[in-house]
Amino acid sequence: MKQNVISKALQIIRAFTDKDKWGVNELARYVDMPVSSVHRMLTVLKEENILMFSENTKKYTVGNEFIRIASIIANNTDLKRIAQPYMQNVANNIGHAVYLAQYYPEHQKLAFIDSIKSASALQYVLSIGVLQPIYIAASGKSILAFLEKDTIKQILDNNVEDVQKRKEVYEELKEIRKNKYSITSNERKQGALSVGAPIFNSTEQIIGSIICVLPKDMYEEKDKSTYINNIKFAASKISHLLGYQGEIK
């Protein structure tokens, strides 16, 4: 189907989320459009302050109006609204409860802000809206692992008295940073196992996590990859919609 002007303009704007500076010719090759067409649209977008042109580099970059619009949208973005369909999808795929946690840096704690309950009569219910520690469980460690080193040290020094235990948590956090997921059991709830993955925003800051929770007795090793893949996929999609450009793999 032939592209209309609006779809072509959106394709050009979208290119600036992949790379911050474009010359006319390289952008035309990237979006597979005639140079003349790209130049006309870039000129219009520049006139509307969506893009800026540098005489020094001869390249286009994001303009002030684009930044203003993006900032307004970002500030009005509802994490729960974005996450809800992905949480539901995970719950449908794995058949267990799914929770969304948000990180509150001023408290150095998390709170669960939404959940999809399991259809199973046997399930673990976590409190919504209550501040909880982040040095335990998949929900917390999936956040803690991606904080600044000084913050991690402060949290562990203040909350984990046993030196050996602190060393074990540090090693666990290294694995979480490497693999982008966490699996824990008997930490926030006795008898519960949880699988979690981090959620990031457009500035690549950790802002929360998504987890599935199930009775440990119902966990089977053969299903491990299913839980991990579903949770990581959901975390990746939510982060992407929040503007994160990295990968959660």
Task: Fill in the keyword field for this structure.
two-stranded antiparallel ribbon, Arc Repressor Mutant, subunit A, six-stranded antiparallel beta sheet, alpha+beta, Beta-Lactamase, 249 residues
Tell me what you see in this structure.
With 249 residues, this protein is α+β, with helices and mostly antiparallel strands. Helices cover 47% and strands 20% of the residues. It contains 9 helices and 8 strands. Strands 5-4-3-8-7-6 form a 6-stranded antiparallel β-sheet. β6 and β7 form a beta hairpin. α5 runs antiparallel to α9. The longest helix is centred in the C-terminal third of the chain and has 18 residues. It is elongated and about 65 Å long. The two termini are 34 Å apart. The mean pLDDT is 90.
- Can you tell me the CATH class of the largest domain? Alpha Beta
Weakly predicted, low-confidence segments = none
| Portion in beta strands | 15-25%
CA-atom Rg in angstroms: 22 Å
Number of extended strands: 8
Largest beta sheet, briefly? 6 strands, antiparallel
- Number of helical elements: 9
- Tell me the span between the first and last alpha carbons: 34 Å
Based on the structure given, which CATH architecture of the largest domain is correct?
2-Layer Sandwich
The class by helix and strand makeup works out as: alpha+beta
Sum up the overall morphology in one term: elongated
CATH superfamily of the largest domain: GAF domain
User: Could you tell me the mean pLDDT?
Assistant: 90
Number of domains: 2
**What kind of assembly state do the chains in view correspond to?**
single chain
Q: How are the strands of the largest sheet arranged? A: 5-4-3-8-7-6
